[in-house]
Each structure stands twice: as structure tokens, then as C-alpha cells.
Design brief:
The chain starts with a helix and ends with a helix. It is mostly helical. The protein has one domain: MFS general substrate transporter like domains (Growth Hormone, Chain: A), CATH 1.20.1250.20. It has helices at about 5-35, 40-65, 70-90, 95-125, 130-160, 160-180, 195-210, 210-240, 245-270, 275-295, 300-330, 330-350, 350-365, 365-409.
Length: about 400
């Protein structure tokens, strides 16, 4: 927080993200109120995040070629207009499910360009030795909003309906826009614009694929994202059907996940260094898998809420640690492209998890769906941890064998 540009951005983002989470909760409840369909919940989430999977690599090249601050100003302005349009449609009772799908897709396209530019901008304005803590603090803003926003949204939806919540979100974008406009950055050396787009894309892909730590972190991040998105998209179903609640209970359940996520982000921000982040990713993913399996089988609310806290903690611990680890191993000239691959793993695979989760819940039920997702995540995280600890065991055996040979001599 000692860096003025980061402090300004942090405060603006904190306000804006509260609006974003409120929008997300209101949109999910609106879809479920209009359709009563788990599949439609998954479809809207899919459309909201699928553009990240399709456009992230291109967005990463743009973030490395052009001014990241100006890029974010354009993207957030577009998102503000999207929220205003959805608010107008909802307040006038003209909203239909297909309109929500279209607007969610448009917002997803904006997010595809926002995420790599945002992560790359943080890496640009923060000294490398402070980067891990800064990423932890940045994740803290996201998850503080994830804790506060849903609870507020659930209450506002119950009192006023979804439309005013979308309007609040539109107004909240003013904070991040003012922060970005007020930033003063040193001119960043441009990446050669003469290089072909394909060459730029391949350069980033080769770097990420050839770096063992980054490659493993991205794989685990994708698995964690698919599980967490399946849980998130089915929260309205658990709130309404399992616990016989309304939008307020849905907001409380989402806030419980947000509380755990906030704790995970604070834990990363307090770490003295970026060492050992790979193991944090593995154990956090394994803990998330166990918590998901417990959540799917426990249908008593006072037990469900603490388990949701653990789910939020595991998800954010894995995601934020992967973010920090990847940025620490990436030079600035490649940062936008590598973080676009991070976006694909983090957000781009969420729509697949959401769509699969919604589809499976329609056929086998929400509880069974989360159980199977949790089992799959548990198996993959176990393999990842085994790959991390295997070299240490091999080195230990080699040292022991060398010691024995010296003794025998």
C-alpha cells in the first residue's frame, strides 16, 4: 500500500468489485426466478465466462502491445453500460432470459480483456520483491467484496428486486474509472508491433508450456476453477430446494464462501516470501475437494455454512498462490500473454464447470454432481502433490545412498 498508484487502484477496485458481486448474485437469482432451471443457471454462467476461454490469448497480446491503463478504462466503461442496460430492462419488467444470455456474453468478452490487463498492470506498478504481497492484497479486495457484496445483494433483491442492484453495480464502476484516470505511470517500453500476432501468441504459449512450475500451476488452477464454478452455479438450487430459503439465504451462503476466500487471500498477503507456493496450491486444492464432498452430503444449514467457508478458503488459496507464483517467474515483456493463459485456466474453464454442473444437476441432482466434481479434484490434486514430493524423496534416497557408500569405504 506504500505505492501510490497501487493504493489508488486498490481502493477503486474494492468499491467496484462490491458492485460486481452484487450484480452476479442478482443476475443468478433473476435467472432462477424467471426459469426455475439449473441448466439455465449454468448456461448464463457459461456465456458470461466462455469469451475468456476464446479471447484471452488475443487479449494477452493486446495487453503486452498497448497501454494497459487505457485498455482497462475502455473495458470498465463498457461493463458500466452493460449493467445500465440490464438495470433498465429489469426495472421496466421487459427482461427475458435470452437478453440476460446476450448481455452476459458481452460482459464476458469485456472480462476476457480486463483480466490479463489487470494482472499485468499490477506486475507493472509493483516492485518484484513486493509482488507476492501485492497480489495477496489485490486478491483480498476481490474476496472482501465476495464476502460483503452477496449479503447486501441478497437483502436488496428481497426488498427492491434485481433491477436496482444492477444500477448500483453500474454506479460502482465510477470508483475504478476515477482511480485509473488518476494514475501516473512511467512509459513502458513497447513490444515490437511489427511482430506477427501468431508469433506473439506462440512466444507466450511456449514460455508457459516449457516452464514446469507454471505448467503445473495452470493445470491445478483449471481443475480448481471447474469445481468451484460448479458449486457456485448451484448455490441458488441448494438455497431454494435443500434449505427452503430465498435470495437472502443465497446471499448468506455466497458470503460464507467469500469469508473463507478473504481468509485465504489475507494468508497469502502475510507470507514473507513467494517460496513454496507450489505446495500451497496442491494442498489447497486437496482441501477444497474434501470440503466439496462434505458440502454435498451435509444438508443442515449450521454445518453447511462453515464448510462453505472452507471451500472459499481452498479455492482462493490455490488461485491466488498460482497467480503469485506465475507472476514471479514471468518477465514484464511476456506478462500480459502469460497472464492471459492464467485467465484461461482460472476463468476460461469456469464456464465448462458451470455448464457441466448445471447439466448434471438436472439429471442426477445437485448433491451427486458436487460429490463427483470433488472426487475428481481430489484425485488430481493428489497426483500433483505426489509429483512435488517425489523429487524430494528421490534426492533424500540419493543422499542416503551416497552416505552409505562413503561409510563402506
Amino acid at each position: 500500500m506504500q505505492v501510490p498508484n497501487f493504493r489508488r487502484y486498490y481502493l477503486g477496485q474494492l468499491i467496484s468489485l462490491n458492485g460486481t458481486w452484487m450484480h452476479s448474485i442478482a443476475q443468478a437469482w433473476l435467472v432462477y426466478r424467471l426459469t426455475g432451471s439449473s441448466f439455465m443457471l449454468g448456461l448464463v454462467t457459461f456465456c458470461n465466462l466462455a469469451p475468456v476461454l476464446l479471447l484471452s490469448l488475443l487479449a494477452g497480446v493486446v495487453a503486452d502491445r498497448f497501454n494497459r491503463r487505457k485498455m482497462l478504462i475502455v473495458v470498465h466503461s463498457f461493463a458500466m453500460l452493460q449493467a445500465l442496460l440490464l438495470a433498465a430492462l429489469t426495472i421496466t419488467d421487459a427482461v427475458e432470459p435470452w437478453q440476460i444470455v446476450v448481455l452476459a456474453t458481452a460482459l464476458g468478452a469485456a472480462r476476457a480483456f480486463e483480466v490479463p490487463a489487470r494482472h499485468a498492470l499490477i506486475g507493472e506498478i509493483i516492485p518484484r520483491e513486493q509482488l507476492s504481497n501485492a497480489i495477496g492484497l489485490s486478491s483480498t479486495t476481490f474476496n472482501a467484496a465476495r464476502f460483503v457484496g452477496p449479503a447486501i445483494a441478497g437483502a436488496l433483491v428481497a426488498w427492491w428486486g434485481e433491477g436496482p442492484v444492477f444500477l448500483v453495480n453500474a454506479l460502482s464502476f465510477s470508483a475504478i474509472l476515477f482511480a485509473l484516470i488518476g494514475m501516473r505511470l512511467e512509459k513502458r517500453p513497447d513490444h515490437p508491433a511489427s511482430a506477427r500476432l501468431g508469433a506473439h501468441l506462440m512466444e507466450g504459449l511456449r514460455f508457459a508450456a516449457g516452464h514446469a512450475q507454471i505448467r503445473g500451476g495452470l493445470l491445478m488452477l483449471g481443475i480448481v476453477s471447474m469445481l468451484s464454478s460448479a458449486i457456485t452455479v448451484l448455490i441458488p438450487v441448494f438455497a431454494a430446494e435443500t434449505h427452503a430459503g430465498d435470495s437472502r439465504l443465497m446471499g448468506v451462503m455466497m458470503s460464507a464462501m467469500g469469508a473463507g476466500a478473504l481468509l485465504g487471500a489475507l494468508r497469502l498477503a502475510a507470507r514473507p516470501s513467494g517460496e513454496g507456493l507450489e505446495r500451497v496450491i496442491g494442498w489447497a486444492a486437496f482441501g477444497l475437494a474434501v470440503a466439496a464432498c462434505v458440502f454435498s452430503t451435509v444438508h443442515v444449514l449450521w454445518l453447511t455454512l462453515p464448510v462453505l467457508v472452507l471451500i472459499g478458503y481452498g479455492h482462493t488459496s490455490a488461485a491466488a498462490s498460482a497467480n503469485a507464483m506465475i507472476q514471479l517467474h514471468t518477465e514484464d515483456a511476456l506478462r500480459g500473454r502469460v497472464m492471459s493463459i492464467f485467465s484461461m485456466s482460472f476463468l476460461g474453464l469456469m464456464p465448462i464447470g458451470s455448464l457441466l454442473g448445471g447439466w448434471a444437476a438436472e439429471h442426477v441432482g445437485a448433491s451427486a454432481t458436487i460429490t463427483w466434481f470433488g472426487v475428481a479434484c481430489g484425485l488430481m490434486s493428489s497426483l500433483y502433490l505426489w509429483s512435488l514430493y517425489k523429487p524430494a524423496r528421490t534426492d533424500s534416497r540419493a543422499r542416503h545412498a551416497n552416505g552409505q557408500s562413503h561409510v563402506n569405504r
